[in-house]
Every structure is written in structure tokens, then in C-alpha cells.
Design goal:
Helix content: 10-25%
Shape: globular
Structural class: alpha+beta
Order of helices and strands: EHEEEHEEHEEHE
Distance between the termini: 29 Å
Strand content: 25-35%
Length: about 170
């Protein structure tokens, strides 16, 4: 798998708000309530069968606090990274405000990689057009290629050989 990191500096908008990116308005909106508490960045990677995916890495503001192995969070069918951030919530007893469970993981020092295969964030391919029948000819078994691309990218970026995986099946 090949990958291209889009740095946080590249995510600055004209207004100068960290984490906003014109290519990811729904994810930017999902992260808005947590601005100044956590950072995020898109990372683009290519699967072994040519799909170009964008995963979002959510982490602590200070790199020194990101000390534990990464956690891959894989949405279920009909979901994406933004819907996980907006819908899967639990109560933060210290503030009484609902927060996505993903931030509990981040607070414990684990960078979280939110997979986005098959969603608006991953509609590119090295040789196929998204309008072609061949582009859409994949099944649930092909999701392993998405997971594998994320694993290889995590190993290359963060040097970890082990990590956690959280998956959700909308059955």
C-alpha cells in the first residue's frame, strides 16, 4: 500500500481554524465541538487493488501524550467516520457533555485511525472511474484490503507493529 500524508498545516483554512479542510466538511463539522482538545488529520493510502482511501487520525494535541499503540476504528455499513463521531456518544462525567467514545480512547494515549472505505472520503482509484461498473464490483471480503492498507500505513507512520481494532457490523 502506498500513502500520502496530508499534514495538519495543510488542513488550515483561510480562517486559520486547525483541523478544517475543504475536502472534508462533514468530518470538520463532527470535530468542531472538540476543537482545541484534540487534533486530526487525513491520511491518504492506496489498497492493493487500487482503491485510494482517506482515513482520519485523531490524537492528543501534544505528541508526547500519544504513547500507546494506535486503534483502528472501522465503521459498519451505512456509517462513515463523521457519523461515528456525531452519533456514537457516551457521557463524559467530568463535564456532563456527551462525547464520542473515540475520544476516551484518544485520552488514554492511543491515536485513533478512523477508516472510511466505501464512503465519500474514499471515492478514488488508481485506474478506474467511480462511474464504472468495475469500480463498484467489490464485497465485504474485499474490506480486508482496506484494513491491510491502514495497517501498513500505521506501521510506516507510527512505527507500531501492534495495535487495536474496533469494528462494527450493522447486521
Amino acid at each position: 500500500a502506498s500513502f500520502k500524508r496530508t499534514s495538519l498545516a495543510a488542513c488550515l483554512t483561510l480562517s486559520g481554524v486547525m483541523g478544517q479542510h475543504p475536502s472534508f466538511p462533514r468530518f470538520t463539522l463532527a470535530m468542531a465541538p472538540f476543537e482545541g482538545q484534540f487534533k486530526w488529520e487525513p491520511v491518504e493510502m492506496t489498497t492493493s487493488d487500487g482503491y485510494i482511501l482517506t482515513s482520519f487520525v485523531v490524537s492528543q494535541l501534544s505528541e508526547e501524550l500519544n504513547v500507546n499503540p494506535p486503534v483502528i476504528v472501522h465503521h459498519g455499513n451505512g456509517w462513515d467516520a463523521a457519523s461515528w463521531m456525531m452519533s456514537l456518544q457516551q457521557s463524559d462525567s467530568s463535564k456532563g457533555t456527551p462525547i464520542p467514545f473515540i475520544f476516551d480512547i484518544v485520552r488514554k494515549g492511543h491515536p485513533v485511525w478512523l477508516m472510511t472505505g466505501g464512503t465519500e472520503y474514499s471515492r478514488k482509484h488508481t485506474r478506474l472511474e467511480t462511474t464504472s461498473k468495475e469500480y463498484w464490483d467489490f464485497d465485504l471480503f474485499d474490506q480486508w484490503k482496506d484494513i491491510e492498507a491502514n495497517i501498513k500505513t500505521i506501521k510506516a507512520f507510527q512505527g507500531y507493529e501492534s495495535f487495536w481494532y474496533v469494528g462494527y457490523a450493522g447486521a
